[in-house]
Amino acid sequence: MLAKGSFPWILTSITLSVVSSLTYLLFDVAYAKTTALIAVCITIFFLFFFRDPEREIKEHGDYMLAPADGKVMDIRGRKICIFMNFQNVHVNRSPINGKVHTIEYKKGGYIPAFCKDSQRNERSHLFIESEHGLVEVIQIAGTITRRIVSYVKEGDYMKQGQRFGMIRFGSRVDVTIPENFEITARKGDIVFAGETIIARIK
Length: 202
Prior knowledge:
There is one protein chain. The chain is α+β, with helices and mostly antiparallel strands and 202 residues long. It has two domains: 7-49; 63-201, Glucose Permease (Domain IIA) (Distorted Sandwich), CATH 2.70.70. 20% of the residues lie in helices and 35% in strands. It has helices spanning 7-27, 30-49; strands at 63-65, 70-76, 79-84, 91-93, 98-106, 123-130, 133-141, 148-150, 157-158, 163-167, 171-176, 181-183, 190-191, 197-201. The strands form three sheets. It has an eight-stranded antiparallel beta sheet, with no helix packed on it. It has a three-stranded antiparallel beta sheet with strand order 1-14-12, with no helix packed on it. The protein has a three-stranded antiparallel beta sheet with strand order 4-10-8, with no helix packed on it. A hairpin with a 2-residue loop joins strand 6 (123-130) and strand 7.
């Protein structure tokens, strides 16, 4: 399965591959062969990057799940910061059941997402109204990323593990943990969206 919103990217690279290949075969244009090879490589990369595998989500009100695939790069008080590399699935999932209270999109720069200064980057703040209070999930764009994609809108109800959006290419997701939860994730942990437990009810 491919991520929602990825079709235009993949279609463009496939079209370029086909056109370049035909140009080389029919007209023997030297640079067309190189262009075709590059386009094919880009298409393969896009198919890998935009993958969105189905996952068996086990909903439970007593714990919170990771909102993103990646590595826990930091835990700052009640906030868990997860960095996503190119090889990670970039579709993000809800850590808890609840209604989308607010979505705040903020424009910004494109500092590497693992830097503390990346708080100045383009980002989207998603506030989930849960039975344990508001839970904030922040999608932060990285150096190459130029677009944060949202799959939900204010007022929508999300189930734990439901897809709520994605960030194209390198990026980071931060999630705040309510006070009545004990954080079980540790810095350096590898986590998977909708599968890895990052906090449990005290």
